[in-house]
Amino acid sequence: MAFYLHRGFEPYVDRAVPILLSMLSDGAVSVREAACQAVVACMRCSSYLGLSRVVSELVKQLNESKWTCKAGGLQLLGAMAEIAPRALYVQFPEVMPAIRDTLADTHPKVKEQAEAALKALCTIVEYPEVAVMIDHVQAAIISPVAKMADCIEEMMDITFVNAVDEPPLELVVPILGRAL
Questions:
Q1: Which distant-in-sequence residues (6+ apart) come within 8 Å of 44 by Cβ?
Q2: Inter-axis angle of helices 134-142 and 144-156, nearest 10
Q3: Angle at alpha carbon of residue 44, lines to 41 and 49, rounded to 5°
Q4: Residues of the chain with pLDDT > 70: what percent?
Q5: Between the N and C ends of the chain, which has fewer C-beta atoms within 10 Å?
Q6: Of the candidates 130, 107, 37, which has an alpha carbon nearest to the alpha carbon of residue 75?
């Protein structure tokens, strides 16, 4: 329906997305894939305001206990980075703590999807000082014990001259806090 109605479907996104996200816990892979495709269709037809509501639902999904729900939510956040990077950029402070939490998940598929989502999210951060060291930042977030020193060394070589908004800080401050 979202595909045919486009923006006309947006009033129903609030009701449809939670139902579709609940289908991510289904045992059948085909049902989970169809649910992901339907949520992507909902995201494509939503306005900026509708997308912010979808992001909130996706973050709630990352707190679920089932690994399929977490992996599906992470996959959808990665897709959203391509579909609506500006809307996700504004929601970055809400999304990044949830991504960091899922990186510590014990299930390998959740961890794999969290790494993919982190990489997709890092592509939307256009802050010049952080963009030059984004690979080091990603590595330090993914494996803090092994890569933290390299990232701190890289940060010490950079002079920050531009005004910093929340998304780059959401990437850098946890690394600095952990290094202290």
A1: 2, 83
A2: 150
A3: 120
A4: 94
A5: C
A6: 37
